[in-house]
Amino acid sequence: MDKKRLHNKINKSVLIESLKNENYKRITASFYKYITINKPQKFRDTLYILYDKYKIYGRIYVSFEGINAQVSIPEKNWNLFKKITNQVKELKNIEIKKAIQEGYSFYKLTIKVRKELVAYGLLENEYDIENVGKHLNSEEFNLSLNNPSTTVVDMRNYYESEVGHFEDALIPDVETSKDLLPEVKNLLKGKEKNKILLYCTGGIRCEKASAYLIRNGFEDINQLQGGIIQYAHDMKEKNTKSKFIGKNFVFDNRLGERVTDDVISKCHICEEPCDDHTDCKNDACHILFIQCEKCNKKLMGCCSVECKNFTLLPLEDQKKIRKNSNEIISKTFFDSRIKPRLRS
């Protein structure tokens, strides 16, 4: 197998320009499946060649325990994409969900082999993926939300739920997957016999999370089938008022899909209502934060005056400073200016 065909090494700016010049529309979609893949590297390489041939872009994780994929498909190749995916033995009849809102989601294809599909860092004896929570469709989930004795938990990181979440949901104050499950177990202490509802973006994080909670003695664990993505589609199709308010955060170039018109967060700079995430344009920072259009223009897409000024330096000066001064390029240093505003 020609290893040169298995990775896209073209410059990012060239790829983005090529994407913008396409004369056809794209469809963003996602799918996942917990299934044993005995040779994940071989599976990864085969899938890369298969998808690359039809200009399917995206970010896909493969492991011994299965696959998690977010992809962007040329609209003209949509039916072909579903056909070739279904022909892969491990992916046969897999559920594929279209995105809530389109946009430039991915500009190239990246497929990585990982130890875990979701980086919870769990040991094998801490969960049983064959014993997960009950899957509720959108209608069942809404009915359960109406029960005052039910507890609903957002199984995402704080910065995701900050721009959109189900009303009255418990929001874990964590920023990484490895911190999420211990925090959720702590939040639910004393509710082992209560009805618990879990939800996440597309469903994958709830699978292992529900198995973990069941192993830890929680008796009535339920999860939203298809996650927020499927829920939003169902509410629109049935013309039903959504109990999820705001935006659905996504891990691609769109950074969010609007579900309702509610803006429940604020700009981290000026505190005006806003729910647009920005990746700080300072390459020594890259903190993800919420920034309004006015502040974005004023700070040139940076999180602070310090970062803006740093990006205005000649590139050679930036490299020298980053090489010789840990204080200036330290992520802790940059984060200290913006993170105190994230919880205010």
Question: How would you describe this structure in keywords?
Answer:
344 residues, alpha/beta, Oxidized Rhodanese, domain 1, 3 domains, 5-stranded mixed sheet, 4-stranded parallel sheet, 13 helices, globular
Describe, in plain words, how this protein is organized in 3D.
- With about 350 residues, this protein is α/β, with parallel strands linked by helices.
- Helix content is about 35%, strand content about 20%.
- The chain folds into three domains: about 110 residues, Alpha-Beta Plaits (2-Layer Sandwich), CATH 3.30.70; about 110 residues, Oxidized Rhodanese, domain 1, CATH 3.40.250.10; about 70 residues, no CATH class.
- β2 and β3 form a beta hairpin.
- The C terminus is likely disordered.
- Strands 4-1-3-2-5 form a five-stranded mixed beta sheet, with helices on one face.
- The radius of gyration is 21 Å and the shape is globular.
- The protein is built from 13 helices and 14 strands.
Please state the CA-atom Rg, rounded to the nearest Å.
21 Å
Number of helices: 13
* Poorly predicted ranges: 327-334, 339-344
By CATH reckoning, the class of the largest domain would read Alpha Beta
**What is the β-strand count?**
14
Name the helicity range: 25-40%
Helix vs. strand class? alpha/beta
Instruction: Provide mean pLDDT, rounded.
Output: 91
SSE arrangement, N to C = HEHEEHEEEHEHEHEHEHEEEEHHHHH
What is the straight-line distance between the termini?
53 Å
